[in-house]
Amino acid sequence: MSQRIQQRREAGNLPRLIAVEGPIGVGKTTLTRRLADTFGFDTLLEQAEANPFLSRFYQDPARYALQTELFFLFQRAEQLRNLHQQELFSGPWVADFLVDKTRLFAEVTLSDEEFPLYDNVYKHMLIDAPTPDLVIYLQAPTATLRQRVLKRGTDFEQRMDPGYLERLNDAYTRFFHFYDGAPLLIVNTADIDLVEGERDYQQLVAELLDIRSGRHYFNPRPLGNL
């Protein structure tokens, strides 16, 4: 696989920006880091732990939703501004978020009174986000996401309302049902291991190397077909 990647690199055929997306607990940050290591790319990470309102949001969503979402919006804008200044805007890198996702979360968390305010700020931010060469959407049933969230043991996430996780998962499904902003690879992670499973991961890398346009679904091949 490394030889094939090198050939694509020499031919200038590697994606310059890969965005990995999916709901909480699906494994997007871990996959982002693994892809960056495989391709020798930099990473652009969400840095949710930097949001001072996030732990309070999980304790009292109605009270802290607006502060939480506005912080994430300003954080995205600052990250992209820094990329411009550092002349890294063209990549190559792997990100564990799409800027569009910021608005998706806001639609789930904010009240009918708060969302128009947020949306007005969003529209006036004029975030100059690059278009990914490839988006990888990781999906899993809500019960699987819940198990993974509990397993990783992040303190404030243990208080997450299961209903919130389900609404968020549904919002991601709707969003990517209509998404056509970039080539898209949809990966159901329920029965595969992209964290430690070498075979599943190598098949995923082989799949994404062939994607140039359109919508695709990742289905690992049986051992006999490798």
TrEMBL record:
Q: Which UniProt keywords apply?
A: ATP-binding, Kinase, Nucleotide-binding, Transferase
Alphabetized InterPro entries for the sequence: DCK/DGK (IPR002624), Deoxyribonucleoside_kinase (IPR050566), DNK_dom (IPR031314), P-loop_NTPase (IPR027417)
Which residues make up the binding site for ATP?
A: G22, P23, I24, G25, V26, G27, K28, T29, T30, R148, V149, L150, K151, R152
- The answer to whether keyword rRNA processing applies is no
Its Gene Ontology molecular function terms?
A: ATP binding; deoxynucleoside kinase activity
Respond yes or no to whether keyword Kinase is given for this record: yes
Name of the protein: Deoxynucleoside kinase subfamily, putative
Q: What's the source species for this entry?
A: Alcanivorax dieselolei (strain DSM 16502 / CGMCC 1.3690 / MCCC 1A00001 / B-5) (Alloalcanivorax dieselolei)
